[in-house]
Specification:
By secondary structure, the protein is α+β, with helices and mostly antiparallel strands. It contains five helices and 17 strands. A hairpin with a 7-residue loop joins strand 8 and strand 9 (94-101). It is globular, with a radius of gyration of 17 Å.
C-alpha cells in the first residue's frame, strides 16, 4: 500500500496509508458546460458516462507523490485537480491538496475508468486542513502549466467544480468516509490550442486570502518499446 505524507502550514505533518482511491469525473457545477464537453468527447470516440457526475475507483497504489510518471506512448496527459485526503473519522480530519490525474488518452476511447488506471494520480506534498479554508473554497484558484516553457493550459477556481462537501456526502452515503480514502475532484476546462501531450505538468492551488499555494509537478518518462 502507498503511504502519503503531507506538510501543513503550521509545519506539522500528516501521514495516511491509501486504502481507497476515487476519481470524480464530469464534475463541473455548470452541467450545461459538462454536457457540451461530453458531446465534444463523443466526437473523439470517448464513451459518454451513464451517470453525471461520475466516480471511478482507482487502484490505491496509483496515489503517488512523485516527480516522474512513466508512460507507454506519447498520447497521455494530465488534468489539474484538487484532492481530499481523509485521515480520521470526522470532517475535521480531511485534508485538501493539489493533484494531477495523468490519463491515457488512447485507452480513454475504450473506457474512462481503464484510462485512469493506466497512470498515477500525482498528489502534492503540502496540504491544508479543509475546515480551515472552508469559508473561501470557491475563491481558491486551480491552474496548470505544461512543457519546458510552462505554458498555461488550465485556469479556474474551485468554484467551477462540485464542492468538497458534495463529495464528502457521497462518500458518507456509500460507506467510504474513512481514514485512507482519497478522492480526486475532476478537472476544469483546458485552454484551446495548447498541446496537452507535453513532457511535463505543473499544477497549483493558490489561496488568494493568504497568498499560500500548493503545487505538484512531474515529468513524463517514456517506457522502453515492448518486445512481442
Amino acid at each position: 500500500m502507498t503511504t502519503l505524507t503531507f506538510e501543513l502550514p503550521d509545519g506539522s505533518t500528516e501521514s495516511v496509508t491509501v486504502t481507497t482511491l476515487l476519481n470524480a469525473g464530469y464534475a463541473g457545477r455548470d452541467q450545461a458546460e459538462v454536457a457540451s464537453h461530453i458531446a465534444e468527447l463523443a466526437e473523439l470516440g470517448v464513451p459518454a458516462p451513464t451517470t453525471i457526475p461520475a466516480m471511478y475507483p482507482i487502484s490505491p497504489y496509483l496515489a503517488q507523490q512523485t516527480s516522474e510518471v512513466h508512460v507507454q506512448h506519447g498520447h497521455t496527459s494530465g488534468e489539474a485537480e484538487w484532492a481530499l485526503v481523509i485521515t480520521g473519522p470526522t470532517r475535521d480530519d480531511v485534508l485538501l491538496t493539489v493533484a494531477c490525474d495523468h490519463t491515457d488518452r488512447d485507452l480513454e476511447v475504450h473506457s474512462v475508468a481503464w484510462s485512469k488506471n493506466a497512470s498515477p494520480d500525482v498528489l502534492g506534498t503540502g496540504a491544508w486542513r479543509l475546515a480551515e479554508v472552508a469559508d473561501r473554497l470557491d475563491d481558491i484558484t486551480l491552474r496548470a502549466w505544461v512543457g519546458d516553457d510552462e505554458t498555461l493550459i488550465q485556469d479556474g477556481t474551485l468554484g467551477d467544480l462540485l464542492s468538497p462537501d458534495h463529495w464528502l456526502d457521497v462518500l458518507t452515503e456509500r460507506g467510504l468516509f474513512r481514514a485512507g480514502t482519497v478522492l480526486m475532484s475532476g478537472t476544469v476546462s483546458m485552454v484551446p490550442g495548447v498541446d496537452q501531450f507535453a513532457n511535463s505538468w505543473k499544477v497549483e492551488l493558490r489561496d488568494p486570502a493568504t497568498d499560500r499555494s500548493l503545487t505538484c509537478a512531474y515529468r513524463t518518462v517514456a517506457m522502453p518499446s515492448p518486445i512481442g
